[in-house]
Amino acid sequence: MIKRFLIGTAAGAILASFAAGAWAETADGAVLEELIVTAQRREQSAQDVGVALSVLSGDQLAARGVTNVNQLQYQTPSLEVVPAFGGGQPQFRLRGVGFDDYATNNTPTVGVYVDEVAYPVPAATQGVLFDVARVEVLRGPQGTLYGRNTTGGAINFITNRPTDKLSAGIDTEYGRYGAAKVEGYISGPLSATLKGRLSAVTEQGGAWQKNRVTGEKLGDADRIAARGQLEWTPTDTFDVLLNAHGGRDESDGQGLHLLNVPGQTGDSRYNATGWGFSPTFAALAGVGTEAKPSRDNTSAGGSVTVGWTLPFAKLTSITAYDQLKRRELNDWDAKASSESDTFWHSDVEVFSQEVRLASKDKDPLDWVTGVYYSKQKLDEVFLTDFSQSLGFITNTSYGQDVESISGFGQGEYKITPRLKAILGLRYEHEKRELIDFSTKIGGAPLFTDGDRETSLNEWSGKAGVEFQAADKVLLYANVSRGVKSGGFTVYNSPQARQIDAFKPEILVAYEVGFKGDLARNLRLNGSAFYYDYKDQQVLGVVFNPQRGAIGRITNARKSEIYGGELELQWTPVQGLQINQTLGYKKGKYTDYVDIDPTTAVRDPVTGLWSAQTTDKSGQDLGFPKLSYGGSISYSWSVGDFDLQAATDYSYRDKLTSFLGEDFNVDSYWLANANLTIQPKDGPWLLGLWGRNIFNEKYDVTRNYFLLSSKIGAAGRPATYGVRASYAF
Q1: What pLDDT score was predicted for residue 28?
Q2: Which of 240, 285, 447, 469 is the most buried (most CB within 10 A)?
Q3: What mean pLDDT is predicted for residues 661-690?
């Protein structure tokens, strides 16, 4: 399969080369928009960047109702974002590179950045998106240009900056289930050298789930967030950008539904759910017994970005601080009984400092080098009520400190006007400490040795070539090495070995691709990749002869992933825009021996446990193989007004679960549509929208915490509404 894809990619590049040589503009002058990105820490056309890259503008995000990073999986190929048990801990996976973990403490495989500031704690990425200029999704290991190191890729959000002229705007939505959203901004100069921007958003309502017994509604949003920016430019060579932001989320949580599987009678209604909390557990969590799944999260932070243009280079400093206070109440058994109710009490602080120097004269050598420092502090309490399943309530608590420092750099050298060589290198040191971990039942810890430590001293890098086959055709090939930190499994545990550190994982990525503007109105980009995985971090089993099998995050010695993407943009006539994306990926273990916990037996004489191993080499990695998506929009004029009709759609392949067939997530299609009208060059816009317009019934994840409750987290049903905006 990979060979056929590589052949197809090469053939596409050759075709693009010939087509570019026969450049022809359509009769009515339809052309594609040039997309400017900063994926490589400088402004470039996306077509000149030799990496697999998808870009969405802020207008596209707003029109499609994308207000959360998780929703990007339906807008870009090869990306999945699964909320663990339907809760506030996202599990990112890009090109099959992901990490399944419902705890808060471990680093993700996909880096999320907002205005070049990293969010290394996944739960902190769940805030509402607003006032966004664009988002760039980079596939493959990143680290030689970025502050943090990732194996899967990076998602970069770039917000709107302060403007030279006074401007303001408001955008409102109202839809089914009483869902409302209001977003606004004001921006402009404050003096000859100072300008500012203030933006804010609120989301309310939208409860679409119901308690299967009482009929009580669940799912209302109650979020508010704001951002203030000041940009000071005292000279042509010096600038400072201050950014302060904060938010509050007091929304209802996701209700889970019971699966209709052997041994369990499931919910007949897709929006049915259930919950209930015992007085003892509610008191420990600090909530009332009448509480329903909910969150009470606050976030705040800021950054200072300083730019100083020197005679030979530009010096940039980014100092940032962010904090998250997470209080999240979940009912993971989806019943009124207390079989697995959970509460998260998490306090996160992240400080980071990046300093980089980038070349000013970019011919023939273009380079960037820098140093990155980060310090994270996490204090967490995780309560679980097993009163009616195991007969007790667990209280798991711990602290974690992470300190890292790294040096990175990348250079691009033009060997000829059309041929460029790229070389990047990064070295990173990280120290990760687990402090005072304990799982308590009735106030007594199950073990007392709760301190652990692990460190990372690894290099990563990139080597590549780019060849400008024609004026509008770029061919590229890259080899990259990415590293993901090790960490600790911090679930409820009676055994000390569970929290022993697992090792870092290393991924070597081989990628070839092309970017071709076949005509002024037709663009085709493609890439193919092969990933060689070492010590992939997976949920597995370790064994203690004194205690038996222990489930925890372990390392699979070797595995592999391969696949690729195609992205098409076509404007056949003026006003008609067609976009198509296709992603395919497949992976398997190539060397992985695990413990089979079902074979565990205890010797009646020695009292020691033993178990057989199972060879999982050749076993599928279990992620969705195929992703397909697209959008079609048509704009036309009627008198003094412009109208646009648009639809976007996506397909997600079946997700095979290692937990068994009952927990596989079936494939599904989603489709959205919107219609807008606005006066030519006018300040206002009115629109109608529909999301999941065919009312597809699907799950975003399936799981169980205890086998007494097999649950699924349902996706939102069909919604529709109106939109109005005004700007000047």
Answers
A1: 58
A2: 285
A3: 95
